[in-house]
Amino acid sequence: MTALFALATSLLWGLADFGGGLLTRRAPALTVVVVSQGIAAAVLGVVVVATGGWSEAGPRLWFAFGAGLAGPVALLGFYKALALGPMGVVSPLATLSVAVPIGVGLFLGERPGLLQVAGIAVAVTGVVLAGGPQLTGAPVQRRTILLTLVAALGFGTVFALITEASTTVTGLFLALFVQRVTSVAAGGAALYLARRRAPAPAVGLPGYGIPWASLPALAFVGLADVAANGTYSVAAQHGPVTVAAVLASLYPVVTALAARGFLSERLRPVQAAGAGLALLGTVLLATG
């Protein structure tokens, strides 16, 4: 059961990343973040009420609030990177977010094992190679790599904070709800200020700059993210967390395959090697 639900997590996260990146090529990244996360927050609110998650409220929710502030920054950078560069490069690099929880452990006195040290070295090498350092052809823009690394740092921060925000499944739902409400509020405020400087679109969702036809896709992105969190929780509860984490970390493969299948995206050999090394480094970090 652990393997099944963890692989389902990879599928859902991978498709959500692909959808978010694709939508960002048609609409502002901030709009995609606010609308998709707003839909996710609404669904999570229903789940919290249905499961009695309000009883888990307590001081730990401040961690969820912090995650809610970091989340929009991470998603904004990630979706912009997906829109600017090859998804097969961006998505694996973003999995370096796993380094943040490891860094927190180091700060608290933990020491990395041999696999973790190897993972760090492999992942850093992957970051360099994914930029396409070769004599011919245009490399991936430095801005794309930078945005991806900022997103990875933000995601890692969110993971670490959410872990501290809850100790039960119902508490996790409540923490995720608080996180997304905070994200929507912060992102919505930024979007409001941005919209005041630009005219509203003639046709579309008023004030958001997206066509009505994109609303189902935005809903899918937000709901897939919520569902992925749920399947990962089930996977971690019914088996070794290490196994669940490693299998769930394979979601960039789904994103890359979706980009290849739907967008006919091709990577140069050095970029493909870098993306693969980044993913391998992440797996080594998670299993160490």
In short:
The chain is an all-alpha fold and 288 residues long.
What are the SSEs and their pairings?
Layout: H1 2-24, H2 29-51, H3 61-84, H4 87-94, H5 99-107, H6 114-130, H7 142-165, H8 169-196, H9 215-237, H10 241-248, H11 251-263, H12 269-287
GO cellular component, one term: membrane
InterPro entries: EamA_dom, EmrE-like
Pfam families: EamA
Describe the overall structure.
The structure is a single chain. With 288 residues, the chain is mostly helical. It has one domain. The chain has helices spanning 2-24, 29-51, 61-84, 87-94, 99-107, 114-130, 142-165, 169-196, 215-237, 241-248, 251-263, 269-287. α1 (2-24) packs antiparallel against α9 (215-237), α3 packs antiparallel against α4 and α4 packs parallel to α7 (142-165). It is globular and about 50 Å long. It starts with a helix and ends with a helix. The model has no long low-confidence stretch (mean pLDDT 77).
